[in-house]
């Protein structure tokens, strides 16, 4: 595989497993048709579209193109609404609840999933796929495991909770793109303070959302993907608060104050139930319009149904048939007022005929509030929607909390859609995305030095053969999105296998440009493994892997020196289990020594055309004895160039520059004055600064912009003043 193809494949994107549709249902808007064509081409996709954007017609149009039987899963009464829309748009589809396939498109509700043999279907659609939100739920597991045998899959829901990345992971797992744990391990890190929380890596943000956009469309309105919004403007939304006073005074207070204490709120709700019900009943009985009334408790629902003229209640104890009948009857106008709970009817139903909503109380769930409001306030609603919230005076903070979450969610969704926008448009229109996120190509020069801003493989390929006298560098190791999000960054790899697949493109180029009989040295350490990332606690022989990679390219192992590091400092910095004294007392079979650095040197076969010779004056026996030691005990780990200013805000770790004395010893041993010294991973320019100080010429390559800038500044100072340290 050529190098450019490797870089293209290195980026994680959902692969297309579908087909190009010939003709689609004529009732689709142009932007809906574009999305459906894309979803069919992908074969497995998610539609995260705001309420009222026509997910039902899109999923039906997608389903009728699939070669074979398709099962559409919906919330309880949504199945009948979907069947009605199918008939309206001339698509054959039928509801089944006994496991019988009713034609090419069969619709059922999630509760009946167990009655169907999913192996009989070529396609599956999840309507209101937020049901996948529960990471350990039975239905979530059944859907992911059962759908694995189905070649074509579509998941549809309103924009998923923006602060719940696990929900996105479960969607990706259902679609067969990547497991939730793989997603977390690739793009996220554990929050240092809360080990159960995951934080999106700074450099991973754009690549994460581009990855999501390779299998999902996330839009609030058509203009998010470049189309006009005509006909898709939301009407006004008015939130009206009604406060019922209580006699509850918190200890230490003179009068009732808003609190977030759950027990106090429950006590207030019980005490004021009849008064809150009366407020809602007075509102709903004041006119003959349709009303949707949300309750949290059974007693509240019973009292509301008894107090409101023309009201029917959908309760948890009702049969599925009664629930369906009453919810559908409300939609057709048979029932003027519907009283129910968010967990029963808060998802999927389309009740644009109603513009009056009342809550007899609120929970702290932003998602429940959002979804229940959007049953009526959605694209297609012709009237301004009035939302009446009746709560106690001690519950005022609940609404403030929900409004705060809503503002945060709006901002996060705007950011998500914005970061996904270009990739979504490219995906929908079949445009190949560029994976080189960093603009490169700049070359800076000075007295005795040249710095290339770019990919080391591309740059070293352009150097003259056998022109380099010596190379010294610290290779990166696999650590995704630690320093950049660019696919050309060798450190930006999933694991060691991907790193070495990338690194092997560089090693032959180093061989080509190195003079015969000359050397290349790399500074490295063995890598600690972790239970979460690797499945075991131990060490990985990174040094040995590097040696074998060079040997496979024709290099000869020349020497290696161990560089001592203080295990106490390492323990304080890393808190590694194997270094902790308490582990000795618990089980010392998990205790270990500290991890040293190594300077490993490889030799290119052949006769050296320009020998590196020394005299007793410049290399006395006493100095040689120090350098010849297999362990260097006298390297100061702080003997480095100043590096903190080169760190980007999004970097997950500080750069670890090579110690000045290590570079100086290597140059003195293995290069001549005037030789070209190469560093393909120049970082902030440490190897170059020492090269200039030792009378060598330097060629460096660096991909990360902030490091390239720092390297050029350090080299400019070194070449102008002769010393930087």
- Helix percentage range: 25-40%
Q: CATH first level of the largest domain: which class?
A: Alpha Beta
Largest sheet: 9 strands, mixed
Poorly predicted segments = none
- How confident overall, as mean pLDDT? 88
CATH H-tier superfamily of the largest domain: Vaccinia Virus protein VP39
Strand content: 15-25%
- CATH architectural label of the largest domain: 3-Layer(aba) Sandwich
Briefly, what is this?
With 725 residues, the chain is an alpha/beta fold. It contains 26 helices and 26 strands. It is elongated, with a radius of gyration of 33 Å.
Written overview of the protein:
The strands form 5 sheets. Strands 16-17-26-25-18-19-23-22-24 form a 9-stranded mixed β-sheet, sandwiched between helices. A 7-stranded parallel β-sheet has the order 3-4-2-5-6-1-9. A 6-stranded parallel β-sheet has the order 10-15-14-11-13-12, with helices on both faces. It folds into 3 domains: 3-225, 3-Layer(aba) Sandwich (Rossmann fold), CATH 3.40.50.10810; 237-408, P-loop containing nucleotide triphosphate hydrolases (Rossmann fold, 3-Layer(aba) Sandwich), CATH 3.40.50; 443-721, Rossmann fold (3-Layer(aba) Sandwich). The chain is an alpha/beta fold and 725 residues long. It is built from 26 helices and 26 strands. It starts with a helix and ends with a helix.
């Amino acid at each position: 595989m050529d190098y450019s193809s490797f870089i293209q494949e290195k980026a994680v994107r959902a692969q297309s497993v579908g087909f190009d549709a010939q003709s689609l249902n004529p009732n689709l808007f142009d932007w809906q048709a574009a999305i459906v064509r894309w979803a069919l081409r992908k074969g497995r996709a998610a539609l995260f579209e705001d309420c009222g954007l026509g997910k039902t017609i899109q999923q039906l149009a997608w389903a009728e193109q699939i070669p074979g039987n398709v099962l559409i899963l919906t919330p309880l009464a949504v199945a009948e609404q979907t069947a009605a829309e199918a008939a309206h748009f001339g698509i054959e589809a039928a509801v089944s609840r006994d496991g019988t396939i009713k034609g090419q498109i069969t619709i059922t509700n999630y509760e009946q999933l167990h009655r169907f043999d999913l192996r009989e279907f070529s396609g599956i659609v999840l309507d209101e796929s937020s049901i996948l939100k529960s990471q350990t739920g039975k239905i979530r597991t059944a859907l992911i495991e059962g759908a694995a045998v189905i070649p074509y899959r579509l998941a549809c829901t309103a924009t998923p909770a923006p602060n719940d990345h696990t929900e996105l992971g479960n969607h990706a797992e259902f679609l067969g793109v990547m497991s939730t744990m793989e997603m977390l391990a690739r793009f996220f890190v554990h929050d240092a303070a809360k080990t159960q929380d995951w934080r999106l890596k700074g450099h991973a943000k754009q690549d994460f959302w581009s990855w999501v956009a390779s299998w999902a469309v996330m839009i609030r309105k058509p203009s998010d993907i470049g189309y006009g919004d005509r006909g898709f403007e939301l009407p006004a939304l008015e939130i009206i608060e009604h406060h019922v006073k209580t006699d509850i005074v918190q200890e230490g207070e003179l009068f009732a104050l808003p609190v977030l204490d759950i027990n106090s709120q429950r006590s207030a709700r019980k005490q004021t139930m009849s008064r809150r019900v009366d407020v809602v009943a007075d509102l709903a009985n004041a006119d003959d319009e349709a009303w949707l009334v949300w309750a949290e408790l059974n007693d509240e629902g019973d009292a509301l149904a008894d107090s409101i003229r023309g009201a029917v209640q959908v309760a948890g104890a009702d049969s599925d048939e009664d629930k369906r009948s009453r919810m559908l009857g409300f939609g057709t106008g048979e029932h003027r007022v519907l009283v129910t709970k968010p967990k029963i009817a808060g998802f999927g139903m389309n009740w644009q005929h109603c513009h009056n909503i009342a809550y007899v109380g609120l929970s702290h769930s932003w998602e429940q509030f959002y979804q229940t409001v959007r049953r009526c306030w959605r694209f297609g609603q012709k009237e301004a929607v009035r939302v009446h919230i009746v709560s106690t005076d001690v519950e005022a903070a609940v609404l403030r909390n929900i409004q705060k979450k809503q503002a945060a969610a709006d901002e996060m969704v705007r950011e998500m859609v914005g970061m996904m926008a270009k990739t979504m448009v490219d995906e929908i229109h079949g445009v190949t995305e560029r994976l080189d996120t960093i603009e490169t190509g700049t070359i800076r020069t000075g007295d005795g030095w040249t710095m290339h801003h770019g990919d080391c493989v591309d740059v070293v390929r352009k150097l003259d053969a056998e022109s380099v006298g010596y190379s010294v560098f610290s290779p990166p190791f696999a650590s995704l999105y630690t320093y950049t999000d660019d696919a050309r960054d060798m450190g930006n790899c999933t694991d060691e296998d991907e790193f070495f697949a990338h690194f092997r493109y560089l090693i032959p180029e180093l061989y080509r440009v190195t003079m015969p009989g000359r050397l290349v040295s790399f500074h490295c350490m063995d890598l600690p493994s972790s239970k979460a990332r690797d499945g075991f606690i131990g060490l990985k022989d990174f040094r040995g892997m590097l040696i074998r990679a060079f040997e496979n390219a024709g290099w000869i192992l020349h020497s290696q020196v161990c560089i001592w590091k203080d295990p106490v400092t390492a323990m304080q910095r890393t808190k590694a289990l194997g270094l902790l004294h308490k582990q000795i007392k618990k089980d010392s079979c998990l205790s270990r020594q500290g991890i040293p650095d190594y300077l490993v040197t490889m030799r290119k076969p052949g006769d050296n055309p320009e020998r590196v010779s020394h005299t007793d004056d410049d290399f006395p026996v006493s100095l040689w004895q120090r350098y010849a030691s297999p362990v260097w005990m006298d390297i100061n780990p702080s003997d480095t160039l100043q590096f903190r200013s080169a760190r980007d805000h999004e970097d997950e770790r500080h750069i670890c520059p090579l110690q000045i004395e290590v570079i100086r010893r290597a140059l003195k041993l293995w290069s001549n004055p005037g030789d070209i010294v190469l560093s393909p991973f120049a970082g902030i320019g440490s190897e170059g600064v020492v090269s200039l100080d030792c009378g060598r010429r330097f060629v460096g390559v660096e991909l990360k912009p902030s490091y390239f800038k720092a390297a050029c500044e350090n080299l400019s100072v070194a070449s102008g003043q002769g010393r930087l340290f």
